[in-house]
Amino acid sequence: MSNTENTPAPNFIRTLIQEELAAGQYEQIVTRFPPEPNGYLHIGHAKSICLNFGLAEHFDGACNLRFDDTNPEKESQEYIDSIKDDVQWLGFQWAGNIRYTSEYFDQLFGYAVELIKAGKAYVCELNAEQMREYRGTLTEPGKNSPFRDRSVEENLDLFERMRAGEFDDGAKVLRAKIDMSAPNINLRDPILYRIRRAHHHQTGDKWCIYPSYDFAHGQSDAIEGITHSVCTLEFEDHRPLYNWFIENLPVPSQPKQIEFSRLNLNYTVTSKRKLKQLVDEGHVAGWDDPRMPTLAGLRRRGYTPASLRKFCDMVGVTRSDGVVDVAMLYHALRSDLEENAPRAMCVLNPIKVTITNYPEDQVEEYVVPSHPANEAMGERTIPFSRTLLIDAEDFMEDAPKKFFRLSQGREVRLRNSYVIKCEEMIKNEQGDVVELLCTYDPETLGKNPEGRKVKGVIHWVSEEHAVPAEVRLYENLFTDPNPDGKKDVNFLEHINPESLEVTTGYCEPSLLTAAPEDRFQFERVGYFCADRFDHGKDGKLVFNKTVGLKDSWAKIQKKG
Ligand code: ATP
Ligand code: MG
Question: One fold for both 105-211 and 343-559?
Fold first, then answer.
């Protein structure tokens, strides 16, 4: 994995294009990203975006953004807007204007008429069930529809009347006349047009017939001069049909479909239908809930565009299906944040520490670097006083020898500050430790103590200066590595009931200036991001836990 972010790894598609360019097959490549605006984009789409826009960037070509909007009932402007935002947030810009398949409806209608005139399409009146029956199976050929041999004139008349709204929804369809005994079922007279009285977000009520995906997609590619129509492997069986249309229609260019394997992540669901269900049924707070694998959710969680691009690069582009470990996504994220997130201290589970030999009203201020390895990130000021908060986990009453944090009679270094020693514990009536009385060694600021070694370093905040924040702690949304994988178990049953915990954190005061979407490493705790929408509302600080510090992926790689 020696590739830096700017030079994505080569892949078989890139190699192929390289060869075609060398052979002079075309001068410039044009790719496209063609989402259907029926939901928000997810991490799988990021792979497709990085690939399509990445190829265009690499070869100095162009990549279009085209909304594949042939199912108006399921589509909406909200989805269109979110998709545009997400593509740009990831760091890509489409060539020219946004495209819509619906812009080509007139042209596509014209193509359908051409097919009818050539005797290669017909209006069929079989209902859905009959159609299924006639289609045959993988092992048996289909049967010709009784409407297959209508005359060209009759077909032209009926198709025109379909468009004019003379027939009920579903009463008739236009089908290609290819081969009902083709081994590839996609070639058994596929549907080109359906009657569907649905208001369309772009074309309004102009149309009551809509083209099928298969009929619209390749022709739209050809209209736009797409050279490489890169899509996921489930379309491999559609390729002969894709090519059939291109060969049988007077299209202005000859695009080529190339398939790659889709991204599957463990502990994650990436079906838009299921993601929509999570939203609609209130299992999450919305499409951009930080637990969602949507780009909007990942963004709100604190993912950086660079980390997602790096992840897509690590995943690579192949034709073999597999499941990627979500730990690899976390790894890509961490390695970006490790370098680029400023440090801060925040105590999530506080216990009070009083430094008994420190003057009552004294306050010291430490000016420390925001990032230990990057001076350019500036400095921050941390106040120190007699009363501090530390994380309860950094204290142990009966500590084993190897516990290098705080325990009675033992010493620990406060990050950026002195070495302190715990002299006494104060307990409440239930016997819980509620306060630690400590002493500090004034000779240890920026220096090792004389004559002894202090191994542990812990984070802390000054109690009177600490700023409370709402901290949202996230875990995987699903407990099962393959939530979608069992036929008889609904994926909702694998929802992790502990995927969100809201708590109060006590922050060093420098975090008061954090802006929405600013990311930090809370030292020794994890990476956090100021919530994009809620942070700063009514003066409240809100931080989302992006990811913990421990990298299980890097460990696995080392071992392996
Ligand atoms: P659904 O989730 O309903 O199956 P879809 O994910 O195919 O729909 P589209 O809007 O059609 O949604 O996808 C746009 C593009 O993104 C397509 O080219 C598709 O192949 C690609 N894409 C979708 N999911 C993935 C994935 N998991 N990995 C890689 N590419 C994907
Ligand atoms: Mg699709």
Answer: no
Mean pLDDT of the chain: 96
Question: Domain boundaries in the chain?
Answer: 105-211, 343-559
Summarised one tens digit per residue, pLDDT across range 30-54 is: 999 999 999 999 999 999 999 999 9
Mutation to probe ligand 1, out of 65, 232, 287, 292 (largest number of atoms < 8 A from CB): 232
Note the pLDDT tens digit of each residue in 112-139: 999 999 999 999 999 999 999 999 999 9
Give the whole-angstrom CA distance, residue 474 versus residue 428. Answer: 31
With vertex at residue 486, the alpha carbon angle to CA 73 and CA 495, rounded to the nearest 5 degrees, is: 75
- Sign of the Cα torsion 44, 49, 50, 52 reads positive
183-234 pLDDT per residue, tens? 999 999 999 999 999 999 999 999 999 999 999 999 999 999 999 999 999 9
What mean pLDDT comes out for the span 65-81?
97
**Pocket (CB within 6 angstroms of ligand 1):** 34-36, 44-45, 47-48, 231-232, 262-263, 270-273
Helical (H) or strand (E) element with 282: none
Q: What ligand is nearest to the CA atom of residue 262?
A: 1
Which fold does the domain 343-559 belong to in CATH? Ribosomal Protein L25; Chain P (2.40.240)
Which amino acid makes up residue 505?
Answer: G
Q: Whose CA is nearest to atom 3 of ligand 1?
A: 272
Residue to mutate (ligand 1; options 42, 48, 321; most atoms within 8 A of CB)? 48
Class level of CATH domain 105-211: alpha beta
What is the SS3 assignment for 559? Answer: helix
